Amino acid sequence: MNAVFSQHGPRAGDDRSIIQAVDELAGRSIEPFSDRALDVVTRLSARLVGVREHPQFAALGYWLRPAAVKRLATMFRSGVPENQFPVPRGLAFHLPPGNVDTIFVYSWALSLLAGNANVVRLPSVRPANLEWLLGTLLEVLSDSGDADRHVFCSYGRDTSLNREISLRSDLRVIWGGDAKVREVSVDPMRPDGLSLGFPDRKSLAVIDSTAYKRLEPPERDSLSERFFNDVYWFDQMGCGSPRVLAWIGNREEADALSRDLYARLASVVVRKGYQVELGVAMSKISFLNDMLAEGKGTAAFFLGNELGVIDLDERHLEPPERIVGGGMLSNLFLPGLDSLFPLVSRSTQTISYFGFDEPQLRAFIHGLSGKGGFRVVPIGQALSFDTTWDGISLLDHMTRRVVLVPS
């Protein structure tokens, strides 16, 4: 069912009513980082930062806190030459993924700060936590007096609305995988419009086994909790969620250390109350058996329905193509950090790490040239959003530059 959302809830409507709401956004862009936009994100941050039952919402609120947004504005302006003036692109059309419930807010919030009016297409089926987040956002927009510059809507695939909204858009941001990017990109935009597509990505983690060995038990517990956040937020279906964990160092020693980490991780899972559906657990068992049968794994172990681990055969250095989620990890032992290169492909997004110093990481990054990889972050920050995503500076693309040439 087609719907347009306001603070009072969804309002049913046909294609024409949605297009009418979009057309009313024409000419409603404002100056980048205006007081009006800053007021919206400040109010939203205050509503979200204390939501402990949904840590991804609290993380979003923290990301939008006034001090962080002020730093973002300073960095953005510092990169603009004196004779250039950033202005909004105009109307931005956001198509977020269905499996990461906060991406639509990050995308929309950056575009808001860039001064754009916005259209956000939401999934037709929305879990309760997404409904709450949307309702909170709409209340904030209403309270701040900025609701008339944004349309949040949902509609099915059997409609021409993607095409019609694209034709009216100055910027289109497509999140959600190769197939979706290809499907939506077929629809034309304004002749001078810009379309950004964020396709399928996979991520991995790497630990220096010697550094892990030196940790005291409380420090190991802390690391396992940070790793839990990377793996289990969004049920391990986020692009930044690691699916492969590589251990660098002596094979036998690293093997024992990996078992120690997974035992601690299983304890965090229980303490956090994370659970998966039986179907997901069965898929993990099937995946483990298939990997062993195909000779791609050398051993497998199951620490409850929420955590399955397969030791990869080092002779097959390709990350598994099959995506299971819900706590399915491929374990790998390598002699050096440069041994990780064969696992990094064009579709690799985030490489989260522990135990390596900056010179080692810089040398590793230089070796990624032409291979892939867009983010190298400490374990615990794999799912943190950044204004540069998949190598694209979002604010720079959400604005355009007016050049002043003095006489």
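the 2nd protein, sequnce then structure:
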Amino acid sequence: MGHLFTGVLTEIITPFNEDGSIDYKMAGELIDFQLESGIKNFFVNGLGAECHELSTEEKLELLKLVYARTKGKAQIMACSFENDLMTNKKLLDLYAETGMCDAFCITAPPFFRHTQKALIDYCGQLIDYAKKPVYIYNCVQMGALFAPETIAKLQKEHSNFRGYKDATVDVVHWIQTSNLCDMENFDFLGGCDGLDGVYMTLGAVGCVSFMAVPFPKEMKAITDAGLAGDFKKCLEAQRRVMVIRNALKLAPFNAAYMYAQKFTGGPVVLHSRMPADQDFVSDAAKAVIDSTMKELGY
């Protein structure tokens, strides 16, 4: 079977107007900027896109927009991070009806801790139900994390389960999981911009990256070097990204990532649907970001 997705999958941000409506014009410009930067994969309606704030209709509109801008130039993974099986199945059906994505991504049910047996049952049903290849996103934002044995069992028992995005920030977990899975026919993808280069040296074939929204070329440098087997260059690119990331993490949620877009020439997103303070970058944080970017040559 080989690999379906390799390299960077940009977890595209949703740009909003001040009144909370989606700025579809800027969304299109953001996709164009990614394509011009060499990005060939898109992760649509993920957590970074504020999927928890989007209506079903808005999710479909964003998918259609990404497809219209990338048709023939990129692959699309559409996320279904809904609260229950029924709602996920409905969204997966709607995604499939558009014919505009190459794969789906699901995750654990939010809010509550689920047993590993429950996760196997829940995700197994969605994997078998889906009409496209399915990926699992393992992230701390949900109420439970998938154990390595759970990922391996799902891979062995469900042929439509084709890949795994790991945002556990746990290298031991990564190694345990990769030891149990078929690495040649399963897409291991990094899910934390602070570790993607490390994961490339451990067998990842790419990453899903929110850092790629303002810094697509920098993230592409990590995966290109990793896929070429040049791990020294890969880790050098990772260290550069880590310096940037350290500065951006001085502000909450997406705020600093939006602010940082001015350094790389992409459209500058100004608003989210989060509380106002989540959009706020303090003057002190801006000073550190500006200084950091100047030191890096931007």
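Residues 231-248 form the longest helix (18 residues). The radius of gyration is 18 Å.
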